[in-house]
Amino acid sequence: MSERLHHDSVFSLEEALARVDDDRETFQMMIELFMEHGPKDLADAQAAVGAGNAAGVARSSHRLKGAILQFCAPAALQACKALEESAKAGNLAHGERLYAALELEFHRLLAALRQARD
Amino acid sequence: MPIPAAVTTFRNAAEDGLRTVLVVDDEPTARMALASRLKRLGYRVIEAGDGKAGLEALRRERPDLTILDWMMPEMDGPSFCEQVRQDPELLSSQILMMTSHDRPEQIAEGLARGADDFLSKAASKYEITARVQAGMRTATLIQRLEDVTEQIRRKQEVLERELQSAAHYVESLLPAPGTLLPGVQMVHAYRPSLGLGGDLFNVVPWSEDVMGLYLLDASGHGVSSALRSASFSTFLRRGNLLHHVGSNDPGAILTEANKQFPLTEDGNYFTIIFARLDVRARTLSYATAGHNGALLHRRSGEVRWMTKPNLPLGFDPSTTYLMEELPIGSDDRLYLLSDGLYEVPASNGELWGQDRLEQTVRTFGHRPLAEVVSGTIAEAIRWQGHEHFPDDVAMMGVELTEMVSHE
């Protein structure tokens, strides 16, 4: 597992590994799960934003948040929280912008995790 | 990587002895992270991907602790908790709810809907460990409580079966209602307060014209009183009385009984009325020991209480109990009863009392004897406002429907 991104601001490998007691095998499986399910949740969030479906946005962003929390990725987590809270408040006036921020951070995290895994 | 099944058991279910945790979360990455932490802590872990599968796993596996996400599609965490608390089989399950909510009103809602504790989704591994261990301690205590409750319930069942059996035995000692002698009818009512009473009454046949009647009241209630009464009733059998007393004189019988049945170590004693009815001589002889529950309702309407201030049995071995004798005639009625009948309290504590009982008997007059006995019991029940008597209640009514001529 590469640690090149350890000092990157995308996520803290050290903290994320500590959460699973440095069990790298489990951590790798978590990355695989996230790479499989995360994009689907993101797509669901995007579709819900497009449809003005606040409850759907809240549901998708909540799921994503639960996964992102495991990787100690502050920027992605913050973007996800902002979209979820806005959706829970029933306010999607800035939904497109908040989603775009999340999408950017999500892909940065995904890339960093892929690098970490490889 | 394949999506984990809706419910996955990570260790062999046969590994009994391991404490089990059910993790219910629709987000697989977070669920795996938590499950792996729990497994490292030595727990058997079951995973469920939604609330419905979680409930199925809870019913099937009965984990010691359930950790579930608040926000899930279809069935959220609070709804899961509500279903668990409404299910008698599951309601004592320990539930730790994961949430990112930290507002007091949301925590209050979760607790009100059935969660036992909360765990932040961002909790450190140390906090997760501490919360899970606390939940396990509670689960252990609840399990012990349930085990002890079940043991007590089983023992209670055994005791109740034994009490029922003993109650049947005591009731088998009671006389059958009907004709005692030609022209002498008897009915009775018996309402023990605890399913097994200490009051007993019976008939002692002396000859074709003479019979004994008694009603005894053992102090206290329940098994001990019933056993003492059964023992006393054995003493009062005809053959035993002839052997030990040598007479059917009620006073002599109680004087001897007073010696045979002293106060118990717990201070328990008997009160009794013992009567002798001689239909040929047309006399009613009786003796009492601390017992005030006997009255004679004559055909003329006169009511006479057969009471005498004296000691119950067992207080003083030198006490002599003397017989009284009254003339009787056709259609006279004798009622023997326990004090539990007229000492029933109303809701304000006021006792029904002998005066009201007497008035009830007068009001019923000479309606059929069974109607008088059942009606008197019903009136006592009406006075106290419920069916359950606080003390044993017995009432025996004897009617002389015709007199045997001695000519």
Radius of gyration of chain B: 35 Å
CATH class (first level) name of chain A = Mainly Alpha
Report the principal-axis shape of chain B.
elongated
Give the overall silhouette of chain A: elongated
Output the helix-strand order of chain A. Answer: HHHHH
Helix content of chain B: 25-40%
Describe, in plain words, how this protein is organized in 3D.
Chain A is mostly helical and 118 residues long. Chain A has one domain: Four Helix Bundle (Hemerythrin (Met), subunit A). In chain A, 75% of the residues lie in helices and 0% in strands. Chain A is elongated and about 40 Å long. Chain B is of the alpha+beta class and 407 residues long. Chain B folds into two domains: 142 residues, Rossmann fold (3-Layer(aba) Sandwich); 228 residues, PPM-type phosphatase domain (Phosphatase 2c, domain 1). Helices cover 38% and strands 24% of the residues of chain B. Chain B is built from eleven helices and 17 strands. At the A-B interface, helix 2 and helix 3 of A face helix 1 of B.
List the helices and strands and how they pair.
The complex is a heterodimer of chains A (118) and B (407).
Chain A: H1 13-19, H2 24-51, H3 54-69, H4 74-88, H5 95-117
Helix pairs in contact in A: 2-3, 2-5, 3-4, 4-5
Chain B: E1 7-9, E2 20-24, H1 28-40, E3 44-48, H2 51-61, E4 65-69, H3 77-86, E5 94-99, H4 104-112, E6 117-120, H5 125-172, E7 178-181, E8 184-191, E9 199-205, E10 210-218, H6 222-235, H7 238-244, H8 250-260, E11 270-278, E12 283-289, E13 294-297, E14 303-305, E15 324-327, E16 333-337, H9 339-342, H10 353-364, H11 369-384, E17 393-400
Parallel strand pairs in B: 2-3, 2-4, 4-5, 5-6
Antiparallel strand pairs in B: 1-3, 7-8, 8-17, 9-10, 10-11, 11-12, 12-15, 13-14, 13-16, 16-17
Helix pairs in contact in B: 2-3, 10-11
